[in-house]
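JOB MANIFEST
job_type = single_chain_structure
chain_count = 1
residues = 159
[input]
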Amino acid sequence: MGLQKVISAYIPQGVFVVTSKMNDKINGMTAAWVSQVSFRPRLLAVAIAPQRYTYEFIKNSGLFCINTLGKNQIDLAKHFGFKSGRNTNKFENVAYIYSLNGCPVLKDAIAYFECQVVGECQAGDHIIVIGEVTDHKILKEGVEPLIFRWEDFFGGVED
């Protein structure tokens, strides 16, 4: 078993759709590397490859929204994870509303956390973007979050 599969199996992570806005455009991407990093202030972090289109949106707006997916939403996670917003409108046929500061919130998410960027740091081939929570809401009480499993997204592909 490849190291990434082992890490995914023994360091469980949720599955999220990270959204942002840039001027009048919106975009989102699937992410599993999301974490709370501080109590005071309430800070969340997401690791994003700098070449991702959503990272460009976050850099431009200074905002991002973490949409927590429920355990039965793997198809929605794949929808936002396997194509680029540069080439397709990922929000076509996906119901959404806006957070306090205008980030898209998936209506089918179980919760969301809008964040104002307060910092970032390089971490290998990713950038860790840190944001302070400015808006949040539980949208579906009692639904278990989707947990990332390598084989759900990549089948038998080795890392």
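[summary]
The longest helix spans residues 53-61.
The chain has one domain: 3-153.
exit_status = 0
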